[in-house]
Every structure is written in structure tokens, then in C-alpha cells.
Amino acid sequence: xxxxxCLYFQxxxxxxxxxxxxxxxGKDSHYYDDFADRTIxxxxxxxxxxxxxxxxxNVIKRNKGVFKVAFSITxxxxxxxxxxxxxxxxSFRKLAATGxxxxxxxxxxxxxxxxxxxxxxxxxxxxxxxxxxxxxxVSPTAFRNTELIYSDAIGRQVYDLGFKVMLAEGARxxxxxxxxxxxxxxxxxxxxxxxxxxxxxxxxxxFRFSDKSWKDWPLTGEKYLSWLKSFDGDVINLFMDYETxxxxxxxxxxxxxxMRFLPEVVLKDGSFEFLTPTQVAxxxxxxxxxxxxxxxxxxxxxxxxxxxxxxxxQQDAFNKLYAQIEKLSLMDDPxxxxxxxxxxxxxxxxxxxxxxxxxxxxxxRFNPYNTPYEAFINYMNVLSDFILRIDDAxxxxxxxxxxxxxxxxxxxxVRPPVRRAATKPVAGKSSKKKKK
Length: 436
Hints:
Elements: E1 3-11, H1 34-62, E2 69-73, H2 75-84, H3 86-97, E3 101-103, H4 118-136, E4 142-143, H5 152-160, E5 165-169, H6 172-175, E6 183-186, E7 193-197, H7 199-206, H8 221-229, E8 235-241, H9 255-269, E9 272-274, H10 277-283, E10 286-290, H11 306-309, H12 312-322, H13 325-328, H14 334-343, H15 346-350, H16 360-365, H17 372-397, H18 400-404
Parallel strand pairs: 1-2, 1-8, 1-9, 2-3, 4-5, 5-7, 6-10
Antiparallel strand pairs: 6-7
Helix pairs in contact: 1-2, 1-3, 1-9, 2-3, 8-9, 12-17, 14-17
């Protein structure tokens, strides 16, 4: 039986915050750096999304559909494509039309909601599923959480939302002697199958490809095939950021040529087949339950959530943000809820990371701030204004005349009560790490 290769790409663009000073609080409620978002999005579209989508479309057609690939595209990225580069949406739709591409579901805002609120997590997952249907005409059946964050409790929630397969990190401290080359099941809900990332082979492309000091540079299709063939198991899961191609690894590095010919080199060998996550889950059985009591992710050497919640700055911002859910639940203000979603983006907390050891260079590469403290101060200024707006809205809605003017049937819907998620952020851990 042929081994399965599951190739998955994450597509995300955040809503970056503008410089928001203390004296802006209460005076200006536009928080976002639209110019930076537009400039960066257009650059990445030209360097990565458009050329890589064209490359994959040609590979799919050239190999008559036997080459398969999967994507998850955050809601914030879809919004920016619509706003600044609609041609990117068109190129993804062409890929969808081939029938060889699967689009996964995730949190709409690329958020940490799974660590804070079951109700908010559910809301964002359903919102993203609707967006995938709206943009690409397909209903997602596989799930990928923000930054591959996963735990037993999160897996149970994902299954309850109707998904039967979920992607996760093949973290060494979770697997022990076991291999990421097999399917596992959620320890609480065994019907949820888990595909675990092969971080070594994934990072060979995502991070080491252009590193001339790497002992295996340059990486060729034939060399990579030999590594694939030496790996035991039923499936090899290659998960990485889509921006790897042309943005993190420049076109001059040869990354596009590598990806143009790798599928054909692999398929010609005859030992492998490319499958989407849902296809992998249908073909292979889970060999055992995987116990993951504490949240893991694909970030850093620790493979935990310390990249976003590892210090007091991050935890303070995180807790203060999610403390607003109770008040927001009393209202149906679409502008406030939209800002709440955008302020949940994991990027804001990532910028506050103070781990400057083995992964410091990686964190700095994606950080628009000079220091984590600048990121924290700017975010907390924005959050302070946001909380003022919530409090003002609650105060207005508390007056009897605010609701008495409308018949009961016209009253705005109230969101369901908030349930706290079983997985809670853990206080600061060690600072040694490696991005993804």
C-alpha cells in the first residue's frame, strides 16, 4: 500500500494596529493600520499567493488531479483579499474548481478563543465555516485550530461542532516513542481522528531551505524524496505557512522550482500518493488515543502556547480582553463585536513575546514593534478605548427607554451564556524556543 503525503498550507494576514497613544483613548476608535495592511498584503500577493497558486494549479493539471493539497485561510485574510487583492480570491477559486484542493475550517480571527471561551470559540468556527462556503462553495469537514493549538478538551469541542478530523503538532513530549506517521484519536472523543505534523520534514522546507549553513543545503527534490522514503508510518504530514513560498523563502532561493518539481519526483517514484486531510482520515485507521491534557501548538521548541501566553504582559492583555465577553453578551452591536474579534487575533499577543533565545530571530522577523513592551503598551491603549466604548454602550442599554421603544419581537438577539473552556492559559514557562 502506498504511503500518504498530506500537504497543508496555512494562509493568514492580521489586522495590524496603528500607533495608538494614551491621548487617543476616548477620542479615536479607529485602531487599525490600513496602510500597512494594504502594503504588506499587496506585496505578499505578488511574491507568494498569486505565483504559488498558479504553480499549484499547473501541477494539479499536469498530473491529472492526482496531486492533492489543503489550505486553511483565516477570515481576516479573506477580508483583506476582498479589500486589497480580489485577484487572489479568484486564484484560490480556480484551485477549488479542480476538486484536488480541500479547504479546512479554523477560527475566523486566527484567535486564542479555544483557550478562553467555548461560546466564542464556537461562534468563530461557525463564522469561518460559513465564510468557506460563501467563498469557495464547499462545506469544510476537517479542522485546524489557530497555530495548531490542540488539547483533549479542545478536540472534544471540535468534534461536538461536527468535525471528524483535526490537525495537530507531532510534539515529541506528547508522542514519546510513538511516530507522527500514524493517525491517532482524541483521548476524550475517540471518533475524532488526529493528523500530526512531521515537524522535521516540514521545517526542512519552511525554515531551512535557504540556509546555506545547513549541512543539507541545497535541498533538491531527489534528496527530499530519499528522506520521505526513510520515514516509517502510513502518512507524512507536511504542514507549513503558505507565506513560506516567496516571502519567508525568496524566489531567488529556488523555492518555487523546488515545489514545481517535487510532486512529480515523488509521484514518479510510485511509493506515495498525495491526499487531503479528509481523504487521509478515510483511508487510515487511528492506531491509538493520544492523551494531551495541556495545550500544544506548532510554535517554538516547547510546542506549547508560551509564544502567546508565556509572560505576564501577554496574560494581562489576554485576560483583560476576554473579561469583556460578559458585557458584550448583553448587546448586539456589530461594530463592537467586529473589533472584539480583531483584537483577539493571536498576532497581537505574539508580538508581546519576551523569549529572546533560540527563537528570538524568528519572533522579530514577524514583529512590527521594536520591543514586546511597545507592543503591549500600544495594545493596552487600544483595549482601554475599546472597554470605554463597551461600558458606554452598556450604560445606554441599561436605561429603560432604550428598549421600551421597540416591541419585544424587534429586540436584538442575545448571545448564548459564556462557558469557560476547560483549557486555561498556563503561567510563564521557559524562554527557550524555535518557531514552528
